[in-house]
Amino acid sequence: METPGSQSSLHRANLERVVRAVRLAGSLTQAEIARTTGLSAATVSNIVRELKDGGTVEVTPTSAGGRRARSVSLSGDAGIVIGVDFGHTHLRVAVGNLAHQVLAEESEPLDVDASSTQGFDRAEQLVSRLIAATGVDRSKIAGVGLGVPGPIDVESGTLGSTAILPGWTGTRPAEELRGRLGVPVHVDNDANLGALGEMVWGSGRGVRDLAYIKVASGVGAGLVINGKIYRGPGGTAGEIGHITLDESGPVCRCGNRGCLETFAAARYVLPLLQSSHGTDLTMEGVVRLARDGDPGCRRVIADVGRHIGSGVANLCNLLNPSRVVLGGDLAEAGELVLGPIRESVGRYAIPSAARQLSVLPGALGGRAEVLGALALALSEMGDSTLLDGTLHAVTPAFT
Amino acid sequence: METPGSQSSLHRANLERVVRAVRLAGSLTQAEIARTTGLSAATVSNIVRELKDGGTVEVTPTSAGGRRARSVSLSGDAGIVIGVDFGHTHLRVAVGNLAHQVLAEESEPLDVDASSTQGFDRAEQLVSRLIAATGVDRSKIAGVGLGVPGPIDVESGTLGSTAILPGWTGTRPAEELRGRLGVPVHVDNDANLGALGEMVWGSGRGVRDLAYIKVASGVGAGLVINGKIYRGPGGTAGEIGHITLDESGPVCRCGNRGCLETFAAARYVLPLLQSSHGTDLTMEGVVRLARDGDPGCRRVIADVGRHIGSGVANLCNLLNPSRVVLGGDLAEAGELVLGPIRESVGRYAIPSAARQLSVLPGALGGRAEVLGALALALSEMGDSTLLDGTLHAVTPAFT
DNA sequence: CGTCTATGTCCAACTAGTGAACTCTAAGCT
DNA sequence: AGCTTAGAGTTCACTAGTTGGACATAGACG
Asked: One Pfam family name from the record (chains A, B) (predicted)?
């Protein structure tokens, strides 16, 4: 059914061109579409009619004060995308439309020991609730982005061994959710989605090469290269948590010694404070105490920053991104952690790479991953999903 | 004259598609073109005829032993590309055609202290000589790739401070050569070109993500991501030589301590052997002695390998390439250095990244950079260059 | 109220890709 | 040797889809 070089593909490309132009501009008249896309007025006329019949686009008789211009805009219910993010302690869901607007977003706690079935049950319910709340039709779902806190095998879609959600190992989250919702599901790990989220909506706007460092229970990085998530041939790119900082350092869960993670991740850092600050401390708590002036917590956070900075320096020397965005709970510490990171980067990265690097805190906090999932759904969809009938055809399930 | 969404643009795109397929494969039958491009056999038939009439492509009656397959290849005189590589001790030039064949190649020594003007004079002469030797017309030059042993500023094309060719700092090699030859010149550093060369002709064939590690006077890496050289926003990606292995190690020329370079590069390693093996030792000499069984040299090379392996492990964790190719003089040591590298990678990289990694010696030796320059010229050329008349039209200059 | 001008639509012309039928050649089998 | 077979390349009628130009439309301006 694929005809990569045929007229139909040309037509399809032209449809996408028009949709993209309209989406970027918000609303356009046909003549404007013709000018910006370079297509002839006749073609635009045909395409707009086709899109209008398909329900992708709305034509309002005469919104502008011109001669007789009919303004064309994406119909609000042309399609929606959904982002689902399984975190280590909670589940987040967001619903957005194709105009990059977030229509609804909600999170709820999720027990770490919950089974995958329980987790997906909860996710399905929450998705249903949010869709109901926004009042759109289920059949309008164009795609779902799914975030999981662990490595995903690119080929099989299987969740690798992850200590964060025990018992989920070996499941195929995308298939699972696809089976429940009946729409395409695209899955990626939390660091990659955080990177995507910050790039589209947060601190990474306008940058095409960035690294998103997520410090939580572990340390991971999401790499955006040339505007796209880079996963590597095996899908395990971005494992900054396991670069070696000290060959004779503490033993890491990965089996090596002195990984960045052993100096920065919650599971290794929190115990340092247990004797002085109690045993049920969380990273969040440490950050709060540090901001309130607790010297021990400040010291620990600064040390973590320095070590992260060493890792980031290596990253910079190798990849030379223009921006590094820090995410996860630790980002809330602001300058307390960014200062030491910048200092370390300045010391260990080659000057030409460090000079033009900006290190920023994430702007989205815990929302980065869900929004990234939304962005993933949007980007994987390709504007073409808007166009083939599948979206608007009657889908018997879920009525 | 531009009709961005019309059939003619589709036709053009299909022409390019065919040309690209042929160029990547060297030569294909029409049926193979149809399969790889996804176009129908009828379309391919038409396109091939058009290209043949235009002189872009040659059809050899029946080269393979098949049924009646006519093999299609880019016509040898459709255009030629030139690769120029300035090394630390010599200058290499290669001339190739669009069918990925190297028509002529030559190298001559170049004094380290030669001025840039002298260097370019020599390069121009050598290029002229080789073109004359191959007997093709100068007007057929489609592009030139240029390799320089130092950092190039992407924006300005200015050569950064390089200790390898002193006195060249601040020159603009691409403009210089462009002025002399009158054709587009694309410049890049030696590590990137080595990566490209090995990918197209050497140990990296068939791989889309690889890292080429060049160990010589310094240590640099060329990164190929998704089949293209990745330079990073600032153009300094791949500086593997300056990732920190030991915060309290020897002081590096970059100002930091314990950079990989201080454990692996010739300038730091050779002095270790001077007291025992004399002062005018080269890396080449050390490798030769090691192969002959000299225990000191073997030890040094193994140590170098281990350290490179540590750096490569970091690289793998971050980028997860499917192949690492070792280039430079050191690669001649074969297993003497590859063994320790693999061992180190196995120890320090996370297992999932290390498992699918292959570490190979470069297959091109000192030719990697010139051939990479050739490949750069080919890839930057853009396939459309072949199609619009400019290349075949009579260009008044250089007759 | 007539003219002007830009918008959107319709139609005939044209471009270019496709499937199906057809021819051609060499290999394999009997 | 002769027949069959299967893939390669070509031809042709058909179809999809864009375009330029003619045409209708409706507000703006004098």
From this structure: MarR_2
Give the model confidence (pLDDT) of A248-260 as tens digits. Answer: 889 998 888 899 9
**Other beta carbons within 10 Å of A216:** 22
Q: Domain A207-363 sits in which CATH superfamily?
A: ATPase, nucleotide binding domain (3.30.420.40)
Torsion of CA A234, A236, A237, A240, to 10 degrees: -150
pLDDT for position B127: 95
Q: Which residues of B touch A38 (CB under 8 A)?
A: 2-5
Which of B5, B230, B322 has its CB closest to that of A233? B322
Contacting residues of A for B235, CB less than 8 Å apart: 320
Q: Which residues pair with B212 in a beta bridge?
A: B222, B325
Q: Is B280 exposed, middle or buried (0-12, 13-18, 19+ CB in 10 A)?
A: exposed
The CATH code of the domain at A7-74 is 1.10.10.10
pLDDT in the model for residue B37: 87
Which nucleotides of strand D lie under 7 Å from a protein CB? Answer: 6-13, 15-22, 25-28
Q: Which pTM does this prediction carry?
A: 0.83
Question: 3-state class of A178 per DSSP?
Answer: helix
Which of A232, A255, A353 has its CB closest to that of B234? A353
Among A350, A355, A357, A358, most B C-beta atoms within 10 A, so best to mutate, is A350
How far in angstroms lies nucleotide C2's C1' from the CA of residue B336?
Answer: 95
| SS3 call for A151 | coil
Residues B249 and B256: their CA atoms lie apart, in Å, by 9
